[in-house]
Amino acid sequence: MSGLNIAKVQFKRAGKLYDFSVSNLTLRIGDKVVVDTEKGPSLGEVVSLGLLMPGKKNDKKLKPVLRRATSRDLFNPQQPSSASVTAFINEKIAAHQLSMRVLKCEPHFSTNKVLVYFSSPGRVDFRELVKDIASGIKARVELKQIGSRDETKILGGIGICGREYCCSSFLRDFIPISIRMAKNQNLALNPSKVSGGCGRLLCCLTYENDTYSQLKQLLPPKGAMVKVLANGATGRVLKSDLFNQTVLLEFSPGQEKLLKVEELDFSAPKKRQTNA
Predict the structure, then answer these.
(1) Does residue 258 form part of some domain?
(2) Same domain flag for 226 and 206
C-alpha cells in the first residue's frame, strides 16, 4: 500500500492539529519534533501518526517534520524565558498606564519574535508600548487581544464538575452553544450552573444534547392524548421520564397510571380540546 506517512502535530496543548510529512524518521505519539512552517522551524508535539493516501483531495504538498527535538531545542539558554518576558512587559504596561492584562508570552522557536496574548475590557492603543517592549527585549513583538473563552483556554482551571476545563485540556475548537441546549436537558437556567469559567455557556452542554433530543422524540408531549394498546383507553400525558422512557397518564381526575412508552400508541398525538 503506497501513501505518505504523516504526523499530526500540535504547537500548544489542546491546540489545533496540523499535518506534516514524515520521511526517514521513526516517531512515536508524544515525541517533541521540529517542523517546517511558514514562519520557519517550529517546535511541536506529535499527537497521532497515519498514512495519507494519494488522491485529488490530498494533492496539497505538506511541509516536513525536520527532526526530533533535542534538549537544546527544548531548553535554549539564549532564548528569553516566558516568565522573564511577561514580567518585563507588565512593568512597561504599568509605566504606560494601560488597562490590559498579559495572559501568556510565547517566544518563537527559531525567529527573533515574541507573541503576547492579552485581555482588556476595551480597545487598547499599544503602539508606543510595542516600541518600548521591542527595544527592551531586542525582539519583534506581536500583541494579540483575545476574548474570554480563549483567555480561559490559555489560563486553565477547574470547572464546577471538579475536572480541568475542557477547552484547556482536550477541546481543540470551540463549538457553538445555545441556551436551547440547557432547556432541552431540563437544566435550571441559573447562570452559575450553566456557565463556565469564561462566563459563557458550558461547552459540555453540547456533549449529550443529541442524546436528549433523540430520547425526547420517543416520548409524547405533555398534554397529548394517547391510547393504551392493551385496552384502548385514552389518557392525557401529565409528565414523562426521559431516561426510563415512561409516561404518567391521567384517565380521569384522580385516576393516574405510569406506563412504558412501548405500551402506548401516540403515532398521531392530539392535544385535549378545551371549551372556549
Answers:
(1) yes
(2) no
Domain of 245: which CATH number? 2.30.30.140
The verdict on residue 276 lying in a domain is no
Task: For residue range 70-115, list pLDDT tens digits in order.
Answer: 998 888 777 778 888 899 999 999 999 999 999 999 888 877 889 9
Query: What CATH code is carried by the domain that includes residue 121?
Result: 3.30.300.20
Cell of 117: 496574548
Q: Which three cell numbers stand for residue 59?
A: 494533492
* Domain membership of residue 100 as a residue range: 82-146
- Asked if 251 contacts 232 with a C-beta cutoff of 8 angstroms, the reply is no
Other CB atoms closer than 10 Å to residue 116's CB: what's the count? 24
pLDDT at res. 273: 44
Tens-place pLDDT, residues 256-276: 999 999 999 876 544 444 443
**Helix, strand, coil % in the chain, rounded to nearest 5:** 25, 35, 40
Same domain, residue pair 68 and 87 = no
> Beta-carbon neighbour count of residue 273 at 10 Å?
7
Number of domains in the chain: 4
**CA 195 to each of CA 29, 71, 177, 204: distance values in angstroms, whole numbers, following the listed order:** 34, 41, 11, 10
Query: What phi-psi label fits residue 249: left (phi over 0), alpha (psi between -120 and 50 degrees) or beta?
Result: beta
Of 232, 243, 216, give the one whose Cα is nearest residue 265: 232
**Rounded-to-integer distance, Cα 201 and Cα 214, Å:** 22
- Predicted pLDDT of residue 1: 55
Residue carrying the nine cell digits 393504551:
228
Sign of the Cα pseudo-torsion (230, 232, 238, 243, in order): positive
